[in-house]
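Before relying on records like the one below, remember that each one covers exactly one chain. Contacts with other chains, cofactors or solvent are not represented anywhere in the record.
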Amino acid sequence: MKFETIHRISVFSLATMAVAPLVLSRELSIYLGPAFACFLIAGWFIPRTVRVTPFFIHTAPVLAALLFLLQAFRIAQGEHLASASIEFAVLLLGIKLCTNHTYADFQQTVLLAFVAIIASTVTSYQISYAFYFFSYIILLPLAMSLTLLRKEMEQRFTKADEQTQLRLLTSKRVIQTRFAAGWAITVFGLVLVVVGLFLSIPRWGFGMGGGTLFGKQILGFTNEVKIGDLSQTIENETVYLRLWPLEPKQPNPTVLPLKFRGAVFDTYQDGTWQKSADTRFRFPLSSDGVYAFFNHVPMRGARFKIMQEPTNPSYLFVPSGTHHIQMERSRHRGRLRYQRLQINPMGVIKYNDAKRVGIRYTAMVDGSPVISDTVSDMSPFLRVPAETENVAALAAAWSGNASTAEQQIRNILTHFFKEYRYTKVISADERSDALNTNILEQFLFDYKRGTCEHYATATTIMFRTLGIPSRFVTGFSGARWNPIGEYYTVDANAAHAWTEVYVNGMWHTVDATPQAGGTGNSGSEQPHTSYISLFYDTLAMKWHQYVIDYDEGSQQALLAALKPAFTTRSSNRPAGIPRNTVLAILVLLVFGFAVYRVWSYLRRPRRRFAKNSRPAKQQATVLFLLLEKKLQPFTGQRTPYETPMQYVIRAEQRLPKLKPFLESFLTHYLQARFGDTPFSAGQFDSYRRDIPIQIKSAANTNK
């Protein structure tokens, strides 16, 4: 493959690996990916003859200036400074890909790719980032070394000898087996350096130093939720929580019937739930990282270590029946401290996630459906929207002659379970009809089927008409077992809605979705997940556990594990060098050899194209290589031990009509190549022009 082709492939691939995490993170503009793809494709297919024109050379700075003004305008309009700066760097990289033609352009492209891969640590922290990052590490030595070789070519052969530059760029003999071996060794050493730096640099928090810019936005957990929002998460397997059982190993059910409470809403109108009650958050008291949701409750029950992904808003999704949680410590402003939680009167818990890395904690669960809060005013939870007379009449009919609130609730739930059925999504016709009708009455009296939001809305309003304080809750329901990683996962497909009722001085969970049984918004079993998905999520979990969560404590544990390998053995232990020490020495030797080989290879072009070499020899070499290339169809490949004179004699035998021209050329070649007589003025250009003409003419005559 030609040198220039390999060089461009390496640089373009390097840029793609650096930008891909930014585009796939969905933290930046949706137009960034298509725009960069257009630059990438255009840059590859624009020929070199066009890229070296003055128009293209002067277009790049003009486009960069316009792009800078556009991003400055967006920042002035309220765009996030970090996202605007990252988008500017990515688009500037795309412009360089379209206009590069010198080694300086390729150097700038590699530098911008480095900026992009660093920016990816701010917008992406998933395991896919690991793939792109290590692909970048593999491509970086290749792109850098080829760029340095191109620099030597351009500095040695200036514009006056552009033909030689072109010949070297199209040569297939520059990249050989030894180069590939040196590249592989360099990559191995570079990976060791990156891993070593990651493990040894003092930790100041989570391993990656931060997650996304804005966190994952979840439908149904903001200040309002419309009926049908949670249905949009169907078939979405984005994982939000992972739970590790901490009890002794025992058979684990496929689905864990737990609800993970998120947002609470109290006001309903025209198919939309909103928050109007007191939602101010306060800090509960905790000095040792243990938060107790119920007083005088012993710390007993099942324990789960929970890893929660960053979300927006940053609610803490606590399993139902949790009475205590133990936070993990993280570094904040140079000190290790426990994560502080905030809680509002309705029991909704938030945490500060400025770094967008999520939260880690241990929950102690006893399975109680009771919710702890401090609401004193029940009026918002008894508020009934207008035009609900039919709903109130139906609630009264269904509740029958029940004398207690508990019996009324059971009677209403029985009707839902027997007479209604669950559907995953709302059809287009139902959505269209709902715009002009009462969606709640339409569900209760016409369709008699709906999503979990329909059932939670209906029960909440019906209970209120009976004088039972009720509220609408969104969260997740059901955790699915991953047999590969041996933990439970809660994904977006488990988004669910239910009702909480205030009975006998406490809030209780009520779920009217038919056949739900606490298994998620599907109303039945959790959907089957393929083995590949489970394996991928296990890898993602390991990535979080050993990379994202690699903090000061993990570093100290690693050093403690390595310490015995480098300490002096006691007298009662067998002598000898520890195996880990031997491996460390071998790794250092391999890395030293790789550095030496790369250094030797990079020095070779400088010796080959030394500044004191004479132009006459260069011109003679260029002309003879051109002659050899044009004669190859008639003489075949020149053998390694064949002298120029022997080769010319063999060419004369194949093309007799070319003999006078070859004898004249050989005389001038030997004088310039091995003597001190350079080509006369214009003679070099004349030979370069006449060689193909003379060979073509002799070949036609020979026919």
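The radius of gyration is 36 Å.
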